[in-house]
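TASK: fixed-backbone design
INPUT:
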């Protein structure tokens, strides 16, 4: 499977979101962090901004819902233009039903796990998903240091995906940079969310290319 780089708009300049989205149009997806100040102690953007972003860029939107009651709110993000919607299993009342609803509405269904949430209790849910997100920091804020203790969890998750022969993506989010992406790729991740490593660079598009090259080098994946 091709490796993917998803810049996180959380690290962009919120006063120029349309320009910031265009600056990374060589990326695979644009990662949009939605926080409600309840599930996580931070408040970011919501449905209206996602709708505006979807009109401002050709890059598909990957919405990560760090919110309470995703069962209620996730469908609205699909209607706003999200091509992939990630809910946290810790917040979902009925994760299988929610994943099926997301798929039925035409988006990719993804489930996220906080660092302390193990993958094993959710093994049977994997066939219902298009992607699984292993958080490599505590959700809520950008710019945090990568948690190396998540690498074994990434490996176990990749093994479970292989066990069932699934064509699902394994995403990592949090502290992904030129210093950490190779370790994530070697552990089995194939979708990488990068915030400050992209938007903190002088040339965000070049940063995306460099991160992709490092991940491909770590896995022996030929460049596109």
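OUTPUT:
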């Amino acid at each position: 499977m091709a490796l993917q780089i998803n810049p996180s708009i959380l690290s962009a300049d919120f006063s120029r979101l349309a320009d910031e989205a265009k600056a990374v149009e060589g990326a695979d997806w644009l990662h949009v962090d939605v926080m409600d100040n309840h599930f996580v102690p931070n408040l970011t953007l919501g449905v209206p901004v996602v709708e505006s972003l979807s009109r401002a860029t050709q890059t598909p939107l990957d919405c990560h819902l760090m919110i309470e009651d995703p069962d209620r709110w996730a469908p609205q993000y699909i209607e706003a233009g999200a091509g992939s919607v990630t809910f946290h299993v810790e917040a979902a009342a009925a994760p299988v039903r929610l994943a099926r609803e997301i798929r039925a509405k035409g988006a990719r269904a993804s489930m996220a796990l906080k660092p302390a949430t193990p993958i094993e209790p959710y093994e049977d849910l994997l066939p219902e998903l298009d992607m699984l997100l292993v958080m490599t920091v505590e959700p809520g804020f950008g710019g945090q240091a990568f948690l190396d203790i998540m690498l074994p969890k990434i490996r176990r998750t990749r093994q479970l995906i292989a066990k069932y022969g699934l064509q699902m993506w394994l995403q990592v989010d949090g502290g992904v940079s030129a210093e950490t992406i190779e370790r994530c790729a070697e552990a089995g991740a194939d979708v990488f969310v990068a915030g400050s490593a992209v938007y903190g660079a002088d040339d965000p598009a070049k940063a995306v290319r460099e991160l992709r090259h490092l991940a491909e080098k770590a896995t022996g994946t030929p460049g596109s």
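COMMENT: The mean pLDDT is 96.
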